[in-house]
Amino acid sequence: LPSILPILEEPLRVKAERYLARQGCEMRLNASIVGAEPGKVLLKDGSVVETDTFIWTCGVKGSSFAAGLGLKTGERSRGRIVVDAEMRCPDHPFVYVVGDNAFFLENGKPVPQIVEGAHQTAEVAAKNIIADIAGGERHAFKSSFHGFMVSLGGRYCVANACGIKSSGFIAL
User: Fold this and answer.
1) Exposed, middle or buried by CB within 10 Å (0-12, 13-18, 19+), for 126?
2) Which residue, 2, 113, 116, 121, is CA-closest to 59?
3) For the segment 59-104, what is each residue's pLDDT rounded down to a tens digit?
């Protein structure tokens, strides 16, 4: 990816990058990893990073089982199944997908693969399954996340909790 921590707003990402750089971390952005061996990491461009410590923050992807079901996955979905706002597969209206396996764009951004996202997508799907069976009002997904916090060691953090953006020790 072109930046770290895409779940956070740019000012918090910048603070996190600056902190990690001050700690001596080298970040490789837009660098695809194709393999790893003891003491080295292999990049798609052919370069090799020699290291004793390797931290790969590539994010979460959908399960290989779900990806193998033959349902539509998106280009940016990382193996997750594309759903509409009602958590239904577009090509199969009675197939619902929730949590880490659901790929839904809300305001142009994928719903994050976090506990709150799983709970909220499941609630929408459950209400719509009831509507399928008993009739009644259908529900569309609208996220309501409390925020995100990323710890970058024991004394530094970046956070957006309940709309309050903070960094450093206070964010912990």
Assistant:
1) middle
2) 113
3) 667 788 888 899 998 777 888 999 999 999 999 999 999 999 999 9
